[in-house]
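Entry 14. Two folds queued back to back today. First construct below, sequence then structure tokens.
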Amino acid sequence: MHIVAVGGSDAGISAALRARELDPSAEVTVVVADAYPNFSICGIPYYISGEVGHWSNLAHRTHADLEDTGMRLRLDTLATGIDVDGRRLALRSSDGAETTLDYDELVIGTGALPIRPPIAGLDGLGAADGVHVLHSMGDTFALERSLERLQPSTALIVGAGYVGLEMAEGLSARGIAVTQVEMLPEVLPTVDPSLGALVHAELDRHGVTVHTGSTVTRVGRGAAGLQVDGTGPDGEPLAWDVDLVLVVVGVRPDTDLLVAAGARTGPRGAVVVDETMATGLPHVWAAGDCVVTHHRQLGVTYLPLGTTAHKQGRVAGENALGGRTRFTGSLGTQVVKVFDLVAARTGLREHEAVAAGFAPVSSTATPDDHKAYYPGAQPITIRITGDRDTGVLLGAQLVGPRGTETAKRVDTYATALFHGMTVDGFSELDLSYTPPLGSPWDATQMATQAWVREHLLPAQVLSPR
């Protein structure tokens, strides 16, 4: 049995590791387009900030670690075509040489590509000009070279999603004055604007100049650096002279290889797979940011996340060996640290719940992370969304200072969502307590109890269960 995985990031490596774990006799080859297999792309902002001392520390596993599992790595090798009937993969190495590789089962984990928005002048500029995207180790090294060469004092970031916010912090840590431009009404648009506003205030507090409801319309080279033009919320013209521009407005699935082989696409152009990660092409599986996401509440959607890619890759690797496991679905659980604040979410927001056929209502509470009489207690803002008719928990959003365990508290909600709990039933969870770390009712439970008080009548609470 020869399993070939294409892609050296989360999905491809997870598939290869699972296959080797279950069947050490299986031959497993991983085809990697660059020289950096199993690197943490999520850790790039912390390398740029200087918190991660050397780029090699971003490797989940070293080259040697991976080969010690028995897998073979084909680095700096691009997969250019799939002969589905012949079970053969066409390859091109970095020197241009073209070869083929036979397989019994194929797992595709080509991931996603950064979106380049329609900004005038953007396509004619690149790293040599101080204009960057940030998605790969190659992008990281290019940005690092610009930082060393230009010694920038100012930078403009297009986009205020997860990576944009992390990079605002990372560049600020290097003493660079950061301007951030977001086209939507508030930063971190994956949470409700009222919670995004808390993140916005944190950016303000750390000297980041934020323009929301604004767009960048043109980027060009000037005598002293880069000239950036934009439009404000009311259409007023905006202009900035900066040394560096970073464009991080999201990703799109990298599907060319699979589509050329005949795979179908779905939401956002991602390749359609079932819960076993089968593509519908014989002996071809796919996982990660190039494929659709099976969401436990929304059904089939597209939600590229590293955690999801790891799970999907594991499923694909097992099933390529003949297993029968299934990806049980995502809840979109996410978290980001922005300076000294942590924002997290899981499940659905109201507009998403409405689209999924629920009758959502929400409430917001600000319980302390631990007992107020113990020094250092800090409030966490928690927004709970539940179904008005059934009382089922639909989603949670949290923003709290670093140190309030906001990231782990969102995981408690994610666990409850996974098992279909009601908002009221959340109070029955037996959660830990000691005054320096929590309260007899955890902050998560205080927030769900606030939802119950606001949205459930006493008769509904007291009705037989």
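Second construct, same run, same settings:
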Amino acid sequence: MPFDQEIRERAAEVLELCRVSGLTIATVESCTGGLVSAALTEIAGSSDVVERGFVTYTNAAKATLVDVPTALFDTVGAVSEEVARAMAAGGIARSDADIAVAVTGVAGPGASESKPAGLVHLAAARRNGAVIHERCRFQGSRSAVREASVLRAFDLIEALVHRS
């Protein structure tokens, strides 16, 4: 997938910020299906910052790859703050990265009354213990929701770089 200029520029900025800060990134992605990692690795030289990426599209993958407690899926659902936070924490635990960013949501179609299309939960965790979360409601097509999620994931990474 060719990325638009905004995503490419933001990816390059995130990589440079992490590079000069000496920090590495892991991604844990559901509704974006690896787009955050793909956007970062589209930039030449990204291997010194991108440590690994997990595509955890199913609940089973979330549980197996990054240790999301399966009880969360029954109590709050996969598209929730709790699961996003658990995904980010699991990304830290299952990698050598300094920062893990997680994305879970409903890109659409297939929304429900409680989980509308465009609802996305993002979380980022830093190895030092800082964790941030954001609940977003993006508008537009499935592609637009996924691309907006990538840009917001970059924002969360940048926020954690600046938080020491």
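Quick look at the second one. The chain has six helices and five strands. Residues 142-162 form the longest helix (21 residues).
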